[in-house]
Amino acid sequence: MSIETYVNEFERRDWQTTTEGTVRFAVIGLGWWTIDEAIPSISDSDLCEATVAVSSSAEKAERVASDVSTMSHGITYDEFQDGAARDAYDAIYICSPNALHLPYVETAAEFGKAVFCEKPMEASVERAQEMITLAEDAGIPLLIGYRMHTEPAIRRARELIRDGAIGRPVQALGNNSQSLLSINDDPEQWRLNPDLAGPGTSVTDIGIYPLNTARFLLDADPVAVQAQMDSDHEAFTDVPDERAAFTATMDDGTLLACTTSQNAQSSTSLRIIGTDGEIHLEPAFHMETELRLTCGETTVDLSTAQVDQMTEILTYFADRVLSGERIGPDGEHGLVDLRAIEAIYEAASAGQTIEIE
Q1: Which domains does the chain have, with CATH numbers?
Q2: What is the distance between the alpha carbons of residues 146 and 309, in angstroms, rounded to a whole number?
Q3: Which of 45, 83, 160, 176 is deepest in the core (most CB within 10 A)?
Q4: CA-CA distance, 241 to 155, in Å (whole number)?
């Protein structure tokens, strides 16, 4: 395929199987991401509709529901789990603290509802495995919300790598950093609470992006990791990784090196370096992605107009629910990341290489 073909087909939805039908969502967890990103993206999708808002606060759920024209119900978590409004939605969107994902999947499985769960899929490998079992036993789709998988620049980069544009991949370099306290200045927020977030904050919440995106681009998984991390800001007292660096050996032989921090300048990038060229994505993960291809002495920018990444992944999910086609990234895919993440924290604590079984 020529470079011109990649550019001309940059924004194509090569995954789309249907343009008909609507998946109605109950959105669970009404934090800033759900309100500012997920609900507007659901509304912008031709295949999605937000119909139920679910929160710990009845007042907040009702207020959000009243602000969205398609929403007919605002209910509490307890009401949701008791079956309130169950006929008003076909799928659930989970954006609660990580350690609270499992109970909502249990309810969705009981009611036969499809599940879109934000990453990471849970706070531990064991709880993630429970989610997979529940979904399989109930026969419901379970998607983990890795929006990079439907981002056009990432998909074109994957095609370029598969087509041999950079030769054999040999190393990958990634970074994802942001100032968490500039987004939410509450030092008691759940992302800084291991009981709700899981083993840490930077690797678990944003380091997962270069890790998972490298997996997707390379079609490879980590088999061993090393790591270093520390925390000295008072808000990060309860988590080990205000900042972290980790390396992973992938099962295709590629070496991945990543840095991540929740207390740094916003910066995102991912480079896949091969024997004959390089894919460079920068910015990469913060709702905007630019792609550059270098082959020898030639460099080409393949970026075009940006898409709404949340609208893309939500539309993909609805497409699969409506068509019955196989869905991915699924629970098994998300479980690989959690195994790697737990190994990264173990490697940092032990000061040694940890193999992933």
Answers
A1: 3-147 (3.40.50.720), 152-304+330-355 (3.30.360.10)
A2: 10
A3: 176
A4: 30
